[in-house]
Structure formats: structure tokens, C-alpha cells
Known about the structure:
Layout: H1 3-27, H2 30-38, H3 49-62, H4 72-85, E1 91-99, E2 102-111, E3 114-117, E4 126-132
Antiparallel strand pairs: 1-2, 1-4, 2-3
Amino acid sequence: MKPEPMRNLYLREATVMLALARLAVRLAPASRILAWAKRPPRRVRRFSMGDVGWIRWSIEVIAPKPWMNAACLPRALAAQAMLRRRGIASTLCLGVARENQALSAHAWLELGQAIVVGGDEAPLFSRLVEFGGERA
């Protein structure tokens, strides 16, 4: 597929997945969202870094738009859903950090040792829990 149609396809998918993830975070219980995040893909396939690169790019382009304004958790959930659709297992990580007297939380998505989404701030946070990952 040519780059322009591929780019539009990923942008559309990221828009839908981010909107669904934002709704889920607002309306669904956390236990349900995190149970979904634990599920492995139905099928596992080898992947090219091209898929991961397009997904990372599309999430980072759409998420900060004023009409979307997606925080770190919806970004990580949307990216995980996009990877899962392609049969790629990833790990959703949640962490905390202390800022002065307050606690701050962050979510990011890992694929192996690489951080797919939310990587800029991830090293500042202590990992609390992981959801998903490779099939055992």
C-alpha cells in the first residue's frame, strides 16, 4: 500500500480507538478495563517494526488534538488495541511518582523492552503493575 493511504488508514483507526478508550476510562469500571488489557491476542503473528511505528505515530498525532485531548491511559489502551488487532502482544504498565507532596500516575505501553506509547515520562515513574504481555 502506498504511504498516503496507509497514513490515512492508521489515523482513522487511531481516532476510533482513542475515542473508545476515552469512553471506557470514563464509563467502565477499572476492573473491566484492566481485565481487557490482560487478554492476549486471539492469534499471534510475527510483526514488522513498520506496524509498531505506524501505530506509535498515529496515536501521537491524534491524541494531543484539542478535540481528542487523550491522556496517557487512553493512549496506551488505544495502542494496545491496535497492536492486538494485528496479533501483537504488548504490556500495559501503570506507575507512580512523587511530585513534591503529591503522587502522580502514568500509563505506558511496552513491546518487549521497547516503549511504544508514553515513553518520555515512563523512566520517571516506579512501575506498580503490568497487564498483558506475551503468551506463556
